[in-house]
Design goal:
Chains A, B: Homodimer and heterodimers. The structure is a homodimer of 165-residue chains. Chain A has 165 residues and is mainly alpha-helical. Helix content of chain A is 75%, strand content 4%. The two termini of chain A are 18 Å apart. The A-B interface holds A 9, 53-55, 58, 98, 102, 105-106, 109-118, 120-121, 124, 151, 154-155, 158-159, 161-164 and B 9, 53-55, 58, 98, 102, 105-106, 109-118, 120-121, 124, 151, 154-155, 158-159, 161-164.
């Protein structure tokens, strides 16, 4: 918006935002791969994979949506760095960042919590599928880190909100 | 902070905040009662209750913490209405509201998602405990509404943040 020449606190927090989004992106990518390739045969010879549990299907949906959002945000950041101004001008950009980060952070947390809520008790019930639930747990943990980075980004974009008159 | 005499937009949003916290409080109270009294004997005669699942134990913890936070916030609101000024003066009050609402809304959502993540798949596996899982589902739904109210309150308190210089 304003064209100050010295590296201000807004430039610092914008760089921090890009880093946080890059970290979220990487963690979500690994979480996606982990849960997508997670399959195992149990004692009875039945193959189980993530599509067998609603909790894991929901988890993978939240990962994909979070992944797409972070890709979009990084694209917008690169565009604004190259062109020198924000892709969304005026208050619209700040509102998009604020609500985007807020909603996506809620989404990622709900996916991770649903995955953990299902896996933790599943592991106590059936120890024959430990390798399956361990990979699912790892995926939910990475998703939780993705949430944490997005929650920090959401704090930045909350403070960047334009003050109401 | 400033003592404007006419009912400003800040007064309106403060009233909305109190209403949202009252709604959250009521929903969490019902959710707490529902999950706490939820017990049933299965076909084998074993009694199951919420303490048998980590997901439900986590859920009840988030309800209790959210309940305590909303009680505190309503107490502070009543104090500020009676005394005419905020209990926490300066920017501290706004920061407390902002981070409080943000963290508690994340907590409530994670509790609800963990409960749902466990219950949805439990219901598919064992139909003999339908009454048990239905009450747990109802409790998780009420908790989700509590989260929604807190998330809206969190949006209000984000916009009320003091603008950095």
């Amino acid at each position: 918006m304003d064209s100050s020449s010295k590296p201000s606190s807004s430039t610092v927090s914008r760089t921090a935002l890009v880093l946080l989004r890059l970290l979220t992106f990487v963690f979500l990518l690994i979480a996606l791969i982990l849960i997508a390739i997670d399959k195992q045969s149990d004692d009875a010879g039945n193959q189980i994979k993530f599509t067998d549990a609603y909790a894991y299907r929901y988890m993978i949906s939240t990962i994909v949506i979070g992944f797409a959002y972070n890709l979009l945000q990084m694209g917008l950041s690169i565009f604004s760095m190259v062109s020198g101004n924000r892709a969304l001008n005026g208050d619209g950009g700040y509102l998009f960042d604020f609500f985007g980060d807020k909603i996506i952070s809620y989404l990622l947390l709900s996916g991770s919590a649903a995955g953990f809520g299902f896996t933790i008790d599943l592991r106590r019930g059936d120890s024959s599928i430990n390798s399956f639930t361990e990979k699912a747990n790892a995926s939910a943990s990475l998703l939780l880190f993705g949430f944490l980075f997005t929650a920090i980004a959401s704090t930045f974009t909350s403070f960047a909100l334009p003050k109401k008159p």
